[in-house]
Write a structure and sequence with these properties.
This protein is mainly alpha-helical. It has helices at about 1-10, 15-35, 40-65. Helix 2 (about 15-35) packs antiparallel against helix 3. It starts with a helix and ends with a helix.
Length: about 70
Amino acid sequence: MEDIEGLYNKGMICSILDLELKIFHLNFKVNEALDEHDKELFILFANELRNFQKIKDKMHFFVDIQAF
């Protein structure tokens, strides 16, 4: 259990809820950057959002496979 807590505290693993919250926050930041016409921040947050969305998609794929 300590190993899992250590990995979580280092940000190496997270819960599904943590992942969903990160994606929600990044969506907000992308929209905020668009509203402010800040191209650099938009690109930064959009790339980060894309990476987290890929992780989420892979998790759903893995969960779907386990269901069979």
